């Protein structure tokens, strides 16, 4: 959004693509449903990566809801919402790291067949959402954060499926823990990228509004 004029920064409303709004609603519903699926399935499978992904689904559902709430607001408030989402993504990554050490300490070995089946289902959902949101990946920080969430989830689900195969082959918890670390890294790195962009957009918006005052 660098170099944009007052029409996008200062206006109280912005024209939003109906396709983007509809995609957000579909993503919100799917992520909320998958949260419950992975919470229940992760508990039965004793999988750290599924629990982490369940929390990620919950966070994404909340992020989509926030995105819908601020779609028609000024750039400053959209960037502020993106800043909150970026901080949430990074905090999620830190939480997963803590959860990995907790599971390692307690020696929890997951059930690979259930873990893999849920991973496949989650992958199908996240790929569908990512495809819907792909066209909006180069928008402002708010749109970009939505795309990054969907992309990261699809990558994480592929890793979970691979981890399930690793657990099945080795009989140990370590493939599951390794994937949880990957999910954590994606959360921290993407959160950092969104935070940086949202701070730039907030600063740009404040400067533009100051000139218009």
TrEMBL record:
Gene Ontology terms for molecular function: monoatomic cation transmembrane transporter activity
Q: Which residues cross the membrane?
A: 23-41, 61-77, 89-107, 113-134, 154-171, 177-195
Q: Does the keyword Transmembrane helix apply?
A: yes
Keyword Transport in the entry? The reply is no
Any single GO CC term annotated in Swiss-Prot or TrEMBL for this entry = membrane
Q: Could you tell me the keywords of this UniProt record? A: Membrane, Transmembrane, Transmembrane helix
Q: Which domain of life is it from?
A: Bacteria
Topology term for the membrane:
Multi-pass membrane protein
Q: Which Gene3D superfamilies match?
A: Cation efflux protein transmembrane domain
Q: Write down the Pfam families for this protein, in alphabetical order.
A: Cation_efflux
Q: Which SUPFAM superfamilies match?
A: Cation efflux protein transmembrane domain-like (SSF161111)
Spell out the InterPro entries in the cross-references. Cation_efflux_TM (IPR058533), Cation_efflux_TMD_sf (IPR027469)
Cation efflux protein transmembrane domain location = 24-200
Q: Which processes are annotated in GO (biological process)?
A: zinc ion transport
List locations, semicolon-separated: Membrane
Name of the molecule in the record: Cation transporter
What organism does this protein naturally occur in? Acinetobacter suaedae
